[in-house]
């Protein structure tokens, strides 16, 4: 797991966020396939179809994703972080989080799955950009130049933001798993979390600025395909249905 998280961190520093975040869902089909062979867990026909759709959608995402980074240096990162549009977006997100955490969650959290999912997903607006920003700032920390000190301060701030957001996410993920089915929560959480992370990354890093209409539609179709695959794997994994049932005659009774 630790190696996987390190690889995920390196991926955020090397390629656009709009590609890394949706592809994180590949852990679900690969985990399901391994569990069916190693742990002898049953993978029904809908689960197998979901694995196929997740892999196919991921290929479409890779083909149509941005081919180059929009932010590659610490100076560019600092400029993006102080952009009025991104600052305004963060203010809106913080306001929504305060409303959800202190007013809505205590009253409706245990009965409405979207409350906890919204909190965890909105925190993704801080988690993923902070992870990418740490990778960019870390490149200048060990250089002997005037910008290395600024890079160190920026990295520490982003680490603090990342740590706080992860801790709060873990808290509300555990609350959600105590109240709701983990499969349903996981499927909805992936779709909402990924959508909000892509929105935050688009505002901050402007990764969509060089994407044409065809590539944009291709990525939208790829993300939709992956999302449908995750829903089939997670939500319908207990559905007792296999391909052999298709050959059974349809018995009608008067």
3D structure, described in words:
With 254 residues, the protein is mainly α. The chain has helices spanning 2-14, 17-23, 27-38, 45-64, 74-81, 84-108, 113-141, 147-179, 182-205, 213-235. It folds into 2 domains: 1-69 and 212-239, no CATH class; 72-206, no CATH class. Helix content is 76%, strand content 0%. The protein has 10 helices and no strands.
Task: Give a short summary of the structure.
One of its GO terms (cellular component) is membrane. The chain is mostly helical and 254 residues long. Helix content is 76%, strand content 0%.
Figure out the total of helices: 10
Question: What is the CA-CA span between the terminal residues?
Answer: 56 Å
Q: Roughly what percent helix?
A: over 70%
User: What does the average pLDDT come to?
Assistant: 79
Structural class: mainly alpha
Number of extended strands? 0
Please outline the major beta sheet.
none
Globally, the shape reads globular
Give Rg in angstroms.
21 Å
The number of distinct structural domains comes to 2
Percent in strands: under 5%
What's the helix and strand layout?
Blueprint: H1 2-14, H2 17-23, H3 27-38, H4 45-64, H5 74-81, H6 84-108, H7 113-141, H8 147-179, H9 182-205, H10 213-235
Fill in the keyword field for this structure.
mainly alpha, 2 domains, 10 helices, 76% helix
């Amino acid at each position: 797991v630790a190696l996987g998280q390190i690889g995920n961190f390196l991926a955020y520093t090397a390629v656009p966020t709009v590609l890394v975040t949706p592809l994180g869902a590949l852990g679900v089909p690969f985990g399901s396939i391994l569990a069916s062979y190693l742990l002898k867990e049953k993978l029904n026909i809908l689960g197998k179809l979901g694995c196929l759709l997740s892999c196919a959608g991921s290929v479409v995402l890779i083909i149509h994703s941005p081919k180059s980074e929009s932010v590659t240096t610490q100076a560019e990162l600092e400029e993006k972080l102080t952009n009025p549009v991104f600052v305004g977006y963060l203010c809106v997100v913080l306001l929504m989080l305060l409303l959800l955490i202190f007013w809505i969650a205590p009253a409706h959290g245990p009965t409405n799955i979207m409350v906890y999912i919204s909190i965890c997903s909105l925190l993704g607006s801080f988690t993923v950009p902070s992870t990418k920003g740490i990778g960019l700032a870390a490149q200048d920390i060990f250089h002997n130049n005037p910008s290395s000190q600024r890079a160190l301060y920026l990295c520490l701030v982003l680490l603090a933001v990342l740590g706080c957001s992860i801790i709060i996410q873990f808290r509300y993920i555990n609350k959600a798993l105590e109240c709701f089915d983990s499969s349903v929560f996981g499927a909805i959480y992936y779709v909402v979390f990924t959508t909000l992370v892509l929105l935050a990354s688009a505002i901050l890093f402007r990764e969509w600025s060089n994407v044409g209409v065809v590539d944009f539609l291709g990525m939208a179709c790829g993300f939709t395909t992956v999302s449908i695959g995750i829903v089939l794997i997670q939500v319908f994994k207990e559905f007792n249905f296999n391909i052999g049932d298709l050959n059974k005659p349809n018995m009608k009774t008067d």
